[in-house]
Structures are given as C-alpha cells and as structure tokens.
Write a structure and sequence with these properties.
The complex is a heterotrimer. Chain A is mostly helical. Helix content of chain A is about 75%, strand content about 0%. Chain A is globular. In chain B, about 80% of the residues lie in helices and about 0% in strands. Chain B has one domain: ABC transporter involved in vitamin B12 uptake, BtuC. Classes of the chains: A mainly alpha, B mainly alpha, C alpha/beta. At the A-B interface, helix 6, helix 12 and helix 14 of A face helix 6, helix 11 and helix 13 of B. Chain C: This is ABC transporter.
Chain lengths: ~350, ~350, ~260
C-alpha cells in the first residue's frame, strides 16, 4: 500500500539519494581520468583538461584516451543498466539480460559476417555492423515471441531470445572455427572492454545512447503497470502490446549501441537492476534513474580497478566485474531483503 | 434430487476419466515417438561417414550378433563411443534442465545459467591451464567443480530454507564470478593451453573415453529413475511452498533431493562433454509442448535432449564441410525447432 | 473436545513475534471466521494452525497430539489449507490441478486409484467446476479460479479445511457464492472450516463463529451476534460505527457512523 505520505517520504529520501549518486559518479569519472597504467600527476591531468600544454604526451593520453574512455564508460554503463532494468520489467523475469535477448550474439554474428563476407577491418567500421546485428537480433526475438495468440508473453520472449542467441552463436562459432582471420578480429571485439575505444567510436554511438536514455525515463510508469501483470495493466488502461514494443525498441537501441562500442559486457545489465530495486523498492520511476547512475559507477570502478591492479597492463572490465562485483551481489541477495519483482 | 446428484457425479467422473485418458494417451504417444526417433538417430549416426554402413550392419555389430572385423572396427571402435556419448549426455542434460526449470519456476533457470556449468568450466580450465592435465583428470575436475558450485550456491542461498528466487539470484552471481575467473585464466594462459581450454569450453561429444562413458551410463541408470520417482513430488512443489506443505510434502527435503539429482546429472554430462549450451535450456519446454502444458515429463525431456545432441552430432560431423565440435551446432539444430514450436503455439492458448 | 487447538502459541518470522502466547480452540463442525485489521496476525495464526509456521513457543494440537511431532503426511490427511496466493505452473489444466490435491493419499509407487478418482470428481461437483476440467487455469475468471483451488483442497479429503483470505480479488457476487459453498460443504460433508476474512458483514452472515484479532492477540470470540459490537469494531479496526441487523438473516451489519 503506498499511501500518499509513504510515497512522499520515499521521494524525500530517494531524491537526495539520486544527487549523492550523481556526485559519486562524478568522483569515479574523475578517478577514471586521473588513474591509469601511465602515471600522470594530478596537476598534469588538470593542465591537460584545461587545454594547456597541448603537445605533451600527458595531454595526449588524458584528452585523447582517458576522457573519451571515461565518457564512453558513463554512457555505456548507463545504457546497459537501463536496458537491463527495462528488459527485466517487461519480461517480469529477474534473469532477463540483454545477452539473453540476442543482443550480444546478433552483434557478434554480424561482426564476423562483415569480416568474412565484406572484408571489413577495424573497430571503427564494424561497430556499425555490430549495432545493426544487435538491433536485428532483438527485433527477431520480439517478432518470434509475438507470433501466436497471446503475443509476446514473458516466457515466450525468454525462449525466443534463447533460441535466437543459440542460432546466432552457432553461426558465429561455425564461421570463426573455419576462418582464423575472423577469429582474431572477433576475439579483439568480444573481449568486452573500454580499452582502445576512442573519440570516433564515442561520437558515433553517443547520439543513440543519449536518445535511448532519455526515452527510457518515460517507461517508468508503463513498467510499473506491467509489473502487476498483463491483465492488471490492461485494467489500468495501458496498451500492453504497445508498451512492450516501445520498451523493446529502447532496449534494442541502448544495448545495441553499447555492445557495438564496447563488445559484450555482462553483469552490469543483469545485476544493477537488482541493486536499484534493493535501494528503491518496486517503483520503476525511481529504479530507472537509479540504474542509470549506479551502472556507470559500477562499470567505471571496475575499469579503474582493472587498470590499477594489473598496471602496466590492464585487466578486462568483465573479469573485474565478475571477481569483485559478484561477491558483493551475493552478499546483498543473502542478507538484504530483495523484493521479488 | 439425489438422482440428479449421482448423475452429475457420474458425468463428472466420465469427463475426468476422459481428460486423464487423453493426457495419458498423448504422453504415451509422444514418449514412444521420441524413443523411436532417438533410436533411429542413434543408429543413423553410426551408418553415415566416409565408410557407409547399412542399419542392419550397425545393429548386428552393436548387439554383437555377428563379428565382421572391418565393420566392428568402425562401429564399435570409432562410432559407438561418440553415439553413446551423445545419447547419454543428451539424456542427462535434458532431464536435469527440466528439473531445474520446474523446481525454480523459471524457464531461464537452466543449469547453464545458474552457475553450475560455470563452476565445472572454471575447474576444468584451471586444470588445463595451471596443471596441464587432460582426459579423465579434466572430467573429474569438471565434475568436482560443478558439484562444489552447486553446494556453494545452496549454502549461500540457505536462510531458513532455500527460496527458488534467492537460489537463482545467487546462482547468477556465482556464475558471473566463475566466468570472470575463467576469463582471467584464459588471458594468462599460454597459447597452447588456452586453445585447448577453448576447445573444451565449446563442448563436444566426440572425445569421451570408455571410463567416462561408463561413469555417466552407470549414473544415468540410477539417477534417471530417481528423477522420475521424485518428479511426482515436484508436481506438488510446483504449487508453491505453502500449498506443497499443506499437502504433506516435506518441502526442503524434497527440494534438496531434486536439486542433488539434477546437479549430479548435469555435472556428469558437462564432465564428459564439456559445457554444451542450449540443450538443458530447451529440452524441457519442447517436451512440454509435445506432452501438453505443465506435464513436466522428465523422460520426454531427457529424450528430447538426446535427440538434440544426436542430430547436432550428425550435422557437426557429417553435413558440414569441416568437422566442428558438437557444441557449435546444438544451437543451430535446436533453435529452428524451438522457434517453430513458439510460432505454432497451440490455438487453445495452452502454450507457455 | 476439539480436534484442532493451540496452547500458548507464539509465532513470528523475524525477531519480533507476531502472535504472542495465544490459546485458541477451533470448534468442530463449525464455520469459523478469523477477522481483524491488516497485519494483526490473522494470516500468521492460520499458517501456524496449518503448521506452515513452526511455533516459537507453545504448540498446536491436532486430535490432542502436538502437531510438530506428527509426520507431514499424517497431518495432510486430516487438515487442508488453501494459501492466500497459491502458485500454478503455466498452462496447467483444471483436472491436473485438482488431481494434485490427492498427493497425501498416494505412496511412492501407488499413483492413482478409484478412490482418488472419486474424491476428485466429488470435489469438482461440489465446487461446480466439473465443466471446466479441460480448461487451462489461466483462462478462467477470478471466481472460477478460486473455486478450482478450493476443489483442489477438497480433493485432499480432509475433515478440517483452512482458507487464507479466499474471497480476496472476488466481486461481491463471487464472494457470496464462495461463502455459500463453504456453508454447503460444512452442512453436507460436516467439514470444519476456518477462513481468514476481510468483510465482517459477510463473515457474520455466513459463519457460525468469529475470532476477532488485534495486535497478535484474540480480543473477542463467539457467535457473530454476540461478538460484533460497535465497541469491538472501534477496538479492532479503529472505525466508529453503528450495528444494524441484516434484514434477511438478522445477523449484525456494520454501518460506518459518520
């Protein structure tokens, strides 16, 4: 029962919480710019950011590598967190993840096809194929799940996603196992990392990510309705089919662009929604912005840790997320009170 | 008045009997059909290849009805182990997957997804990369890894009982943790070991040794009937913990027994063939589609699993220009079928 | 002598107990309603009586034996419970669901016999759900679905039947229909029925005995006409009201005062 007073009290606590998260994100972003395998003093970083001393190596590293990397981390993190939240809301399945909806496998399959069939080389070019593949796969999942009388029910979405993922995965592995060139390129892309993604990639995907993030904030109310079940949502005057389609479009754009830019990054989209729900309770109008801030914090922190721990090399963000993030998550599940939504 | 009541009751009894008979007939037909299909595929995989054989030759050789050295060498020596491996691994994966999904009440809760397979993978990859072991040692390591992962998940999820939801969430957490470590192993490994590990991670039914097959076969003989007997308790557990308890089920004990059975099945399958994805995930839903909704037939799911793996093996080895590990093809073989099933959701709306 | 009673029962989920040191006796062959405000412990009490919740202190006695010492199957043959929001697997048919109520009467290998068959058929008839046997549960209306669940509990064939808020989510017509069904079951099969109910007016009209709870304790119990007073309603629900007699049955009806 959320009486007006309860809701008001919650808003009173959650509003400032959002601001705190914003500050934390800014701090983490700053950390991500200042820390790295190359030791650059704080003053040099600040000078570089201010545009002084444009010729030094410190300037180049900071402005051309770390800043775009950090910005990309923020956008991609937010996109994955929000995409995961929306997907779990629409499918009402706590296991739903952009990976299971065919995003990663579609992107990978298209990268491999672009390499083998069109002879495309270089991350800058094939991110667009990855993007197209991700969107196409998600679309395919949605269309298949919508066939039949009842439309895209959560169960059918999950199964269609699994089927498309498996089919695309087979295609990819099949090609890769017979084409060493493709294997090499794919391996590089499939690492799932913020490393080596510079300004061109950032400017390429940023418009899609930003548009998707803005659109997603409008989904909150609809997701709240869907969380009560299709019938109730319909009873509340919602057009369930339309809502689902719109939510899926948002997921496709966000996860597609993020995956295209950074390769498949797991965990963030799967687990951040649970963290957000843990903090906010069941209201998606709060869960969405919280996911949007929590996810980049988690992603950037993992990225920074990976750079610091393994200096002068670096550890993939995926490895760090798994080894450090998972125990924290398990702890929350075990000792917290997670709502079953 | 009494007469009416009795008549109604008789009509009800008849309707009920008809419903049950209809279900039984459908289950019987589906199971028989699946068994026949599995048997046919089992023989077929041994017929094709560079040295073509007739069905009769294969059957006589397998059953030791006659000894023809050249045929026996090809059948018993080369093709039977692979076919047996596909059959047993498929049965184990199918049965295990459907038990997991019903127990945790989530169609995505296959053992691949909730950390058991990833536990096996981490143990096996560690063995390959750190200690350069192979063969049976990798098999045993994977087995140990899967069982340990399951135990860790169960203990972590225990809080005055194990709720399915908590088990799933802990499971994904544990899976991500193991996958992170596995990824780290692969990065740090020498190229040779990394390639070996990658190959193991793809999953293949072609490499099982005799010992491994005996282990899996023996376990199946015990575990599959056990799963079938326990499945009657699963029917009640599906109605929620409260209802199950009200109906006299010892919920935690039953759940632990079912989990243990399913974990052992999948652990053995992964130990023998590596983490072949997709089979455990779709066998149950496909079987339910054939048997009717919410029937949860474990035998049928096991048969579907075997059918999937046998056909995947057939495609992987014989139909493609270059022979590929089975794990590559399972998706390509299973996905279209699952899609077809989804698209033709029966018009009574009883799909799911 | 009563078949089901509790002595010094303390129940709870976490640190704080919800029901404290409570004695209660369920009258045999009667329809009893447990009423009270939200979170007063009425569902907790029901769950405790049905041994879904282990007592912190005290005990629940079934036929004068401590329930904690009985095997779950023994209890399930005597006492049935319909939880507040039972789960059903996707696509399950009515026949399948109701048949699952026979679980406590089946052994490891003995799966189905004529007695099971008769019990299920009787349960379907009693609840008027016989025409629905082939239908998937999901396609039914809320009222039909609730009757099917009751059929499942009836198929269990127990002398005592406990129901946790069986009328929630039902419209007034279906609420009345359901309570009439409980009355019929009580009258024809002599079942002892205990239900947690929200609507006091309906409880007064259709139940023999009312247990009113507040803050984890019983504040009043007895026949509706004795128990339902303006003071009690004020105490239990914090509502000031006037009690008028039901024009048909003469049972008390609550009318808000202002």
């Amino acid at each position: 029962m959320s009486t007006p007073t309860v809701r008001a009290r919650r808003a009173l606590a959650l509003g400032p919480g959002l601001a705190v998260l914003g500050v934390i994100l800014a701090l983490v972003a700053f950390l991500s710019i200042t820390l790295g395998s190359r030791d650059i003093g704080l003053s040099d970083v600040l000078r570089a950011l201010a545009g002084l001393d444009g010729s030094s190596i410190e300037h180049t590293v900071t402005v051309e590598m770390r800043v775009p990397r950090t910005l990309l981390g923020v956008l991609v993190g937010a996109a994955l967190g929000v995409a995961g939240t929306v997907l779990q809301g629409v499918t009402r399945n706590p296991l739903a993840d952009t990976g299971i909806m065919g995003v990663n496998s579609g992107a990978a399959a298209f990268v491999v096809l672009a390499i083998t069939v069109l002879g495309v080389r270089g991350v800058n070019v094939y991110i667009w194929f990855a993007f197209a593949g991700a969107i196409l796969a998600t679309l395919l999942v949605y269309v298949i799940a919508s066939l039949g009388r009842e439309g895209a029910t959560p169960v059918k979405l999950a199964l269609a996603g699994a089927a498309v993922t498996a089919g695309m995965g087979s295609l990819t592995t099949g090609i890769v196992m017979t084409n060493v060139d493709a294997l090499n390129e794919l391996r590089f892309w499939q690492v799932g990392s913020l490393a080596g993604r510079y300004a061109p990639i950032l400017s390429g995907v940023a418009p899609f990510l930003i548009a998707g993030l803005i659109a997603s904030l409008a989904c909150g109310r609809a997701l709240n309705g869907l969380a009560l079940g299709e019938d109730t949502a319909r009873g509340l005057g919602q057009r369930v089919g339309l809502t689902r389609a719109a939510a899926f479009a948002v997921v496709a754009v966000l996860a597609g662009a993020a995956t295209a830019a950074c390769g498949p990054i797991v965990f963030v989209g799967l687990i951040v929604p649970h963290l957000a729900r843990f903090i906010c309770g069941p209201d998606y109008r709060w869960i969405l912005p919280y996911s949007m801030l929590l996810a980049p914090i988690v992603l950037l922190l993992a990225d920074v840790v990976g750079r610091v721990v393994a200096a002068p090399g670096e550890l993939q963000v995926g490895v760090v997320l798994g080894v450090l993030g998972a125990p924290v998550f398990v702890g929350i599940v075990r000792y917290g009170r997670l709502s079953e939504a | 008045m009494t007469a009416t009541a009795t008549r109604t009751s008789a009509a009800t009894a008849a309707a009920l009997r008809a419903a049950r008979r209809h279900r039984a007939v459908r289950a019987f037909a589906a199971t028989t059909g699946l068994t026949a299909a599995v048997a046919a595929l089992f023989v077929l995989t041994m017929m094709v290849g560079s040295f073509r054989l007739t069905a009769q030759e294969v059957v006589t050789s397998v059953l030791h009805l006659a000894d023809v050295p050249s045929v026996d060498f090809v059948v018993r020596g080369l093709r039977l182990p692979t076919a047996l491996s596909a059959l047993t691994v498929g049965l184990a994966l199918g049965a295990s997957g459907t038990v997991f999904q019903q127990l945790l009440r989530n169609p995505l809760a296959s053992p691949d997804f909730v950390g058991i397979t990833s536990g096996a993978s981490l143990a096996a990859v560690s063995g390959i990369v750190l200690f350069q072991v192979g063969g049976l040692a990798v098999c045993l390591l994977a087995l140990g890894g899967a069982v340990t992962a399951a135990l860790v998940m169960y203990l972590l999820a225990w809080r005055d009982g194990v709720s399915g939801y908590r088990f799933i969430l802990i499971g994904i957490g544990v899976a991500v943790f193991f996958e992170g470590l596995t990824g780290y192993m692969l990065i740090k490994a020498e190229l040779f070991e990394a390639r070996q590990a990658m190959h193991w991670l793809t999953g293949s039914v072609g490499q099982a040794s005799d010992q491994e097959l005996k282990l899996l076969g023996g376990a199946l003989v015990v575990l599959l009937p056990l799963a079938v007997i326990l499945s009657r308790k699963l029917r009640v557990l599906e109605l929620g913990d409260d209802t199950a308890r009200a109906l006299g089920s010892r919920v935690e004990l039953t759940r632990a027994a079912l989990l243990a059975t399913a974990v052992l099945l999948v652990a053995l399958a992964v130990a023998v063939a590596g983490p072949i994805v997709f089979v455990a995930l779709v066998a149950g839903p496909i079987a339910n589609r054939l048997l009717g909704p919410a029937t949860g037939g474990i035998v049928a799911a096991a048969l579907v699993g075997a059918l999937l793996l046998l056909s995947a093996d057939l495609v992987a080895v014989h139909l493609l220009p270059t022979a590929l590990p089975t794990g590559v093809v399972t998706g390509a073989v299973g996905a279209p079928y699952l899609l077809w099933l989804l698209a033709t959701t029966n018009r009574k709306g009883a799909g799911g | 002598m009563s078949r089901l009673r509790a002595e010094g029962l303390t129940l709870g989920y976490d640190a704080e107990p919800i029901v404290r040191d409570l004695d209660v006796t369920i009258l045999d062959g009667k329809v009893t309603a447990i009423v009270g405000a939200n979170a007063c412990g009425k569902s907790t009490l029901l769950r405790g009586l049905a041994r879904l919740l282990r007592p912190r202190q005290g005990s629940v006695l079934l036929d004068e034996k401590a329930m904690a010492g009985l095997s779950t199957l023994e209890v399930a043959k005597v006492l049935g419970l319909l939880p507040q929001s039972p789960l059903a697997p996707d696509g399950i048919t009515v026949a399948d669901l109701v048949s699952r109520g026979r679980y406590p009467h089946q052994g490891w290998f003995r799966t189905w016999n004529d007695r099971d068959h008769d019990a299920v058929a009787r349960a379907l008839d009693a609840t008027g759900t016989a025409d629905l046997v082939d239908r998937p549960l999901r396609q039914l209306s809320g009222g039909q679905r609730q009757r099917v669940w009751i059929a499942m509990a009836l198929a269990q064939d127990t002398d005592l039947l406990l129901l946790d808020e069986p009328t929630t989510y039902l419209d007034i017509n279906h609420q009345v229909e359901l309570l009439r069904l409980l009355r019929t079951l009580n009258a024809q099969a002599g079942k002892t029925i205990v239900a947690v109910l929200h609507d006091i007016n309906l409880a007064s009209r259709y139940c023999d005995h009312i247990i009113a709870m507040a803050d984890g304790a019983i504040v009043a119990e007895g026949a509706p006409s004795e128990v339902i007073t303006a003071e009690l309603v004020a105490k239990v629900f914090g509502l000031s009201c006037v009690i008028v007699p039901d024009p048909i049955a003469g049972t008390p009806i609550i009318v808000p005062a202002d």
